[in-house]
Write a structure and sequence with these properties.
Layout: H1 11-26, E1 30-36, E2 46-51, H2 55-71, E3 78-80, E4 87-91, E5 95-100, H3 102-108, H4 110-113, H5 126-139
């Protein structure tokens, strides 16, 4: 069997990404970015990258996203890194969520790795919340 080829993103995948972004922002995630990777990889349609200021906040953000996926009828396939709270990866099938502490995020720099992939503009009021989270991070 040949490996899956990258494809165009689906409306369901985008809706799931928006719900995950909303869940992360509700837990005060900072510097949230949604990246459309559907044309570049078959592992997911969207990546969400965000930060928390402490291990407890990273854990809380990740747990909130996982609960949102479960409530939406498609629980996460896997969640890695929750115990340490430095970098938590949530595999939501068509949406992969990365929640980092700032130093760990800077070290791995996933945004640079996916710099050729388009960023998703979130609908209001999430767009404003995400922009405010970036401003809060810049002030810190």
């Amino acid at each position: 069997m040949s490996p899956e080829k990258p494809h165009a993103p689906t409306p369901a995948g985008l809706q799931k990404a928006i719900l995950c972004a909303e869940a992360a922002l509700e837990k005060k995630a900072t510097n949230l970015v949604v990246i459309d990777v559907a044309e570049f990889t078959s592992i997911a349609e969207y990546l969400i990258v965000c930060s928390g200021r402490s291990d407890r906040q990273v854990q809380s953000i990740a747990e909130g996203v996982a609960q949102t996926l479960k409530s939406g009828g498609s629980p996460a396939n896997a969640m890695e890194g929750l115990t340490r709270g430095q970098w938590v990866l949530i595999d939501g099938a068509d949406v992969i969520v990365h929640v980092f502490q700032p130093d760990t995020r800077g070290f791995y720099d996933l945004e640079r790795l996916w710099e050729h992939a388009p960023r998703v503009e979130l609908p209001e009021p999430l767009r404003t919340q995400a922009e405010e989270s970036r401003a809060r991070r810049a002030e810190a």
